[in-house]
Structures are given as C-alpha cells and as structure tokens.
Write a structure and sequence with these properties.
Layout lengths: L7 H4 L10 E4 L7 H14 L4 E4 L5 E3 L5 E3 L1 H12 L4 E2 L6 H10 L7 E4 L2 H10 L3 E5 L6 H8 L4 H4 L5 E3 L2 H9 L1
Parallel strand pairs: 1-2, 2-5, 6-7, 7-8
Antiparallel strand pairs: 3-4
Length: 178
C-alpha cells in the first residue's frame, strides 16, 4: 500500500486494523517505507502486547555465480530499529521451530540430521538441538570458515562447526542411493 498523503502527518493517519496483535517480518520483495510505517504504528499502538516476530536473520541470500541479494534479516533489522525493540525469531537458529516439529511428530534428535548451507543458522540450530549436522558447501559458508571455527578456543565459535560436510547436496543423495 502507498503512503496516504504527501506529508509524515498524513502517514500517521492511515487506518489500522483493530484485530492486529502482531507484526510478522518475513521475506518481502515489496518491502517499502509505507510498510515500515504501518509496522511501527501497530507496534506503538499495541505496545508490548503487540508481538514483533521475524522469520530469520539471514543477512543475505546467495545466488549462482557468487552474487547475493539482501536477506530477511535486513528487513527485520529495519523494523527493530524503528520500533526500538528486538524481534522474536521463529526460524533458524532459534530452536522454536525444531521444538514445535519435534513435539508434534515425536522426532528423536539422536536419529536426526540437520542439512544446511549456513553455519550461523543451519549448523548452529542443529548443534544447539543436539542433531547431527551436515554442511553443504554450495551456499554462504565455506570450509575455510569451518576450519577457523574449529581451531578457535571460543565456545560460541565451536558451536558453528558441523559434524560433516559435502561439496553439494547431490553428493549426499548419491551416498543415500547406495
């Protein structure tokens, strides 16, 4: 939606839905200043009773050939900055999502593997949930980063070390087929 008028005072006059009790920030290719204004107005109107929820903090999304685009974390940060409060993140690396799935479907962490291409989300969540972790080297994280974390004495960095790695998910599928 466009801003309702040319001046900031006009922007504060757009109608708000009285049923809204949470602002959810996820990937949105149409994120705009108007949406940021509306999010802030809902959060200010509801105060602490209006939840601020983010899907993830990914700072960028990798594309083929080494290119990248801004990730959802950039949008979450914009709303957090405007609202002057931190979002509750429901996606990786927060274990909330895993705990919901595990309780609903009786997942046994000792028989579960977390496969992902990011150390700071996929591998961190897998390790925090006591899952076996497998890093695919087709995304954001590199083997040099893994080695740097592995050689560190910092407990926070060692939580980013996967149990295994493969160059590509295709390598894993080949092994599973055998």
């Amino acid at each position: 939606a466009a801003l309702p008028g040319p001046a900031p005072a006009d922007w504060a006059q757009a109608p708000l839905d009285p049923a809204v009790r949470a602002v959810l920030v996820g990937f949105d290719e149409h994120f705009s200043y108007a949406k940021l204004c509306q999010a802030l107005r809902y959060l200010m109107r509801g105060g602490p009773d209006c939840l601020l929820v983010g899907t993830n903090r990914d700072h960028r999304l990798p594309l083929e050939g080494g290119a990248a685009i801004p990730g959802t974390g950039c949008l979450v940060k914009a709303v957090e900055t405007a609202a002057q409060r931190e979002a509750f993140i429901v996606g990786k690396p927060n274990r909330f999502m895993f705990d919901c799935v595990a309780s609903e479907f009786g997942v046994d962490p000792s028989r579960t593997i977390m496969v992902g291409d990011r150390l700071d989300t996929d591998i961190l969540m897998g390790n925090d949930c006591r899952l076996t972790t497998l890093l695919t080297l087709t995304g954001v994280s590199t083997l040099d980063e893994v080695r740097g974390h592995q050689d560190s004495d910092c407990p926070a960095r060692t939580r980013l070390v996967p149990d295994y790695y493969v160059d590509s998910i295709a390598d894993l599928l080949q092994v599973l087929g055998e």
